Amino acid sequence: MLSISIVVVSYGSAAYLAECFSSLLKSVAVYGADRVKVALVENHQDAAQLEKTRRAIAPFLKQGVSFWQAPANLGYGAGANWGWTRLGPSDIKIVLNPDMVFPDEWLSAFVRPFEKDASIGIVGCKLLGREGEIQHAGGLIRRDLVLAEHFGAGEPDDGRWDESCPVEFVTGAALGIRAGLFEQLGGFDPAFFPGYYEDVDLCKRVADLGFKVWYEGAAVAHHFEGGTFGRGLGYYLPLHRNRLRYIFKHLSTRQLLTETLPAETQRLRGTMDDRDRQATATVYRTAARSFFGSLDPGLAPGSRTPALPAISQEKENKTVLKKKPESSRPDLYDSSLEASSGEGANLSRQLMERVKEVKEGWLIEEKPFRSRLPFVASLRERFNSISTRWYVKPILAQQVEYNAAVARAIEDLGKLAAANQPVHDLEIATLSERMLSMEQRLERIEILLENLAASSHNEAGKNV
Prior knowledge:
- The chain is α/β, with parallel strands linked by helices.
- It has two domains: 4-223, Spore Coat Polysaccharide Biosynthesis Protein SpsA, Chain A (Alpha-Beta Complex), CATH 3.90.550.10; 233-462, no CATH class.
- 47% of the residues lie in helices and 13% in strands.
- The chain is built from 14 helices and twelve strands.
- The chain has helices at residues 14-31, 47-61, 76-87, 106-116, 179-185, 198-208, 233-250, 253-269, 274-292, 313-317, 347-360, 380-384, 393-418, 425-462; strands spanning 4-10, 36-42, 66-69, 92-96, 100-101, 120-128, 134-136, 139-141, 148-150, 165-166, 174-178, 212-223.
- Strands 1, 2, 3, 4, 5, 6, 7, 10, 11 and 12 form a ten-stranded mixed sheet that branches. It has a two-stranded antiparallel ribbon with strand order 8-9.
- A hairpin with a 6-residue loop joins β8 (139-141) and β9.
- The longest helix is centred in the last third of the chain and has 38 residues, at 425-462.
- The radius of gyration is 25 Å and the shape is globular.
- The N and C termini lie far apart (61 Å).
């Protein structure tokens, strides 16, 4: 029988704890309480909220539940990591939302896939909403928009989603992972704070190592979604920020430019929740500033401090494992970033200027070297393989100038989201033209750098 560590991560969710732990401990007893350790991690730092949590969890401390206040608001993923580590060794690590209720047989059914199949690395379960409707039965990520699609969402629980199968991701509301993978990967990436996409990211990293992400239809729990984070601007801001973080971490530069950005432009044309639109605008414009700082050409390079990872950085740093048989939540919203009503009228002219900048940066010409770094992280390995000869430096210098034009394009996309009006065909056509130009630019640079690398290798061979 596998040993299990279960961490429930709360953020001021005292009202849900009695029902959650009452049902959870019954399920633990059915599985075998001597093989299971359970803990509650409270992320909230407010004294009044903490006292409410203490009172709610007190009856369960006598039943072996551990209760810890996190040293700071760690967020959902990092809170799970911290709790799992404190609980000590076990075969399986499970994290749960506090706004859940579990049938007696839930834990036994949830762990069974780990017992039967050594190739399964992560397990999730069927989640039902307040009215008994399907909330989650596994999911996938749309390739273009990088938005989560939950299988069966909103449908009746009539048996159609009972079949267990591999999926692209399972929700972190109820997620289990093998201890070996947790240790190898470091668990959830704490950068996905306070939550959202940390589960998708972990599932992808586990799948990239060759393990299955498994939806177990026989394990069913009830999830009263919203008890931890709720809905509002405080929901949409971290959602889109972490979505963008996931994009930069896992997507190639070409996929970002040719699939995601055009699809996102189309998404912004439709009717959206005002809070969603506002959050999207803020995140894009903040990201552009994080990557490039002020777009003033005279800015000192040292003043640029990226807040998001470089595109596809995870692909370079990944460790390969061979398969074996809200108060303290950061507020990203900045009202100064909202587009004024008059800004939309001038957007077409601005977009045309951006296209001109992109076209002017098309051809690579020799220029005096300037100490700025390239944006295209997917080319980093090629850059490192080329010696710093005089003809490489002008390429890097001009690449940075082109990168600034790309950053301004991202800012424009943020303005499109912020403008509370439809996007006109001219704007869409302009964005499409810019995406095509950037793709062609990347292809030319890749070919040129490959030729330079080959030339450098040949000359090195002659000197041997």
